[in-house]
Write a structure and sequence with these properties.
The chain is of the alpha+beta class. It has a two-stranded parallel ribbon. It has a two-stranded antiparallel sheet with strand order 3-4. Strands 5-6 form a two-stranded antiparallel ribbon. The two termini are about 25 Å apart.
Length: about 110
C-alpha cells in the first residue's frame, strides 16, 4: 500500500481512485492510515461483506485464526464493472503500480 500512496499523482492522472478495504475496525483502519501516512480512501469491513462479494476471504490466515482479506487489486469502471483484477493467496504479493497503470491505459 505504500507504493499506492507514493504513486497517487500518477493514478489520479489516468483517472484511478485507489480504495483499500480491510477486515479491521474503522478505528484500527484510521490509526493505520495516520501512522503510515495513507491519504487515499481506506474502508473497514469487519463483517467481511464486501470482501466476500469480491471473493477475497483468506480463511484462518489472520491473528488467532481469524479470516482476513487476501490481496487483490481491481480496476472498476464508473458503472461498477470490474475491468481487471489480480488476486493472490500470498499476503505479501501485490500488483506493482506500474502494472496497474499499464493495464489502465489499455482499458476503454
Amino acid at each position: 500500500m505504500r507504493s499506492i500512496q507514493k504513486n497517487l499523482n500518477q493514478f489520479s492522472a489516468v483517472g484511478i481512485r485507489p480504495v483499500a478495504i480491510s477486515v479491521d475496525t474503522p478505528e484500527e483502519s484510521r490509526d493505520l492510515c495516520r501512522k503510515a501516512g495513507y491519504t487515499f480512501t481506506f474502508l473497514s469491513d469487519p463483517d467481511l461483506e464486501a470482501i466476500k462479494g469480491y471473493d477475497l476471504v483468506h480463511k484462518g490466515q489472520g491473528e488467532k485464526g481469524h479470516d482476513v482479506a487476501r490481496p487483490g487489486e481491481f480496476l472498476v469502471d464508473a458503472k461498477g464493472i470490474v475491468r481487471w483484477r489480480m488476486l493472490t493467496e500470498n499476503l505479501w504479493v501485490r500488483a506493482r503500480p506500474e502494472q496497474i497503470l499499464e493495464v489502465a491505459k489499455t482499458l476503454p
